[in-house]
Amino acid sequence: MRRRYWFLRIRRQLFGCLLLSLLILSLLLGICITYSASAGSSAAQRTTNLHRYPINCSAIYDMDPVEVGKSLWIRRQRVVEEVSDEALAELTSDCSSFLKIRGYENVCFSEEEQLFPLAYSLVVHKSAWMVERLIRALYSPTHVFCIHYDLKSPLQFISAMKGLARCLPNVFISSQLENVVYASFSRLKADLNCLSDLLRSDVQWKYVINLCGQDFPLRSNMELVSELKNLNGANMLETSRPSEAKKERFTFHHQLKDSVLQKTDQVKTEPPHGIQIFIGNAYFVLSHQLVLHMNSSEVVRDLLSWSEDTYSPDEHFWATLVRLPGVPGEVPVSQPDITDLMSRTRLVKWEYLEEYLYPPCSGQHVRSVCIFGAAELRWLLNYGHLFANKFDLSVDPVVVQCLEEKLQERQRLFESVALHLICPKTLKDQ
Fold first, then answer.
1. Residue 320 placed within a domain
2. Which end of the chain is more exposed for a tag (fewer CB within 10 A), N or C?
3. What are the tens digits of pLDDT across the range 197-221?
4. Residue 89 located in a structural domain
5. How many domains does the chain have?
């Protein structure tokens, strides 16, 4: 009996020691992460003004439970907060330092990229560093970027956007800015303003892609160029027949009241020229030829004018545009629906389709849309889309950091086999 008592007592002591050791180990891991992030943060404030987390992105990609767990710990502890718009505005006040610190002067490009430049329309309103990281992930001296910021944006955000345009010679601010109201014509107009400016650019771009500030690429520059070359003049976007509920968006007149778009009882006239309306989302990949055609087509102008008093006109205008007879890269009206999953332009994870079309969100839901988390890194990179939405540095900064690292790895891999690589030493410092 005594022997059994001592055995149980020793076992309890050993278990207590083991538990204590695990607690201490967990505490030390937390302190280590906090210290590393804190040290990295102070260094970042002196150099890149960006927080870099002590995380192994290759292990995250391989779904290593320890590293994924570490990313969750970082997210929950909020080790550091997102850096301010003011910090980017201050950094871009010295363009030579900004270009060097953020690595723009070391961006190389292949002959294929040089012969196939791309254009980007960025309609943004907040989170300056997220916009900068989006541009940096896509950046090539061969491309051209138009930034449209909302006139309601905070002054420091506007200052940061102007700083980006001042420091990067192929980035500019739209010549006409809108006070963007959710679901109104102003959102569509913002992209149209950038498209008009991009047509006047000296860069002879082949395709234009529109983005928002919470988008991020899932392909490296060389991969994007290769994929868009394979389109052979076709366009890439969602275009589907509307449900009865969606038809109300363009069947009734809508009007702005107190900065809110409201539906009225007034029934609209039929679409001009007998046009059949299709629906999609606000995002597209359009050929240069189609954008040129838009400027000269009376049918397109009439469709645009008719759409001004509809709800979310950007969610039917582009989808209908590519169905118009005779447009470059036309999708015939008789062709079946092209859904958002089929078009591959933008990967969005809707809460009500999780576990049916895709795995659960590892980040956070906002209005039924998933803000991605680090545990979705592998799924994002392998699903097949060009871009994804949404990302938020205040929700999960690790997934953005790891996407940056994986895309840089892919770009370097393609550069290593490129026949001719051009590496400018510096960019023009204005």
1. no
2. N
3. 999 999 999 999 999 999 999 999 9
4. no
5. 1
